[in-house]
Amino acid sequence: MTSDKFVDPQMINQLEQEANAITKDLDCMLKKLKTKMFEASTITRESFDVYDQTVTNYCAAIEETSNKTCALINMCETFDKEFSNVYALAKNIKNIRKQLDALQYSIK
């Protein structure tokens, strides 16, 4: 039994060249993909770092604002206590003014 069919060597060479070209293209594509994935990973890590820093700064800002608000409230309470004397003085001044008015009216 002999086979009348034979394999064309040029066709095999052509297939081999096409396979090599595809291999090179695939290798190039995978290298680019690796680079892009590394870049995406770096950007993702940086994004998480920025998020973490933002949360940390936000918490610090809230704490600072809260502390300053408490200090302001304490200062207002202190002023209120200190100004209670001013109200008493104002009342005394009004009484003196009324007495002066009454004295002035009686002199006329």
Entry summary:
This protein has 108 residues and is mainly alpha-helical.
Question: Major β-sheet, in short?
Answer: none
Structural class: mainly alpha
Task: Please mark out the parts with pLDDT under 50 across 5 or more consecutive residues, or reply none.
Answer: none
Number-wise, the strands total 0
Rg calculated over all Cα atoms? 46 Å
Give the H and E element order.
Answer: H
Tally of DSSP helical segments: 1
N-to-C CA distance: 156 Å
Features:
about 110 residues; mainly alpha
Characterization of the model:
With 108 residues, the protein is mainly alpha-helical. Helices cover 92% and strands 0% of the residues. It contains one helix and no strands. It is rod-shaped and about 145 Å long. The termini are far apart. This is 6347_t:CDS:1. One of its GO terms (cellular component) is BORC complex. Pfam families: BORCS6.
Give the helix/strand layout.
Blueprint: H1 9-107
Domain BLOC-1-related complex subunit 6 C-terminal helix: 6-104
Protein name: 6347_t:CDS:1
InterPro entries: BORCS6, BORCS6_C
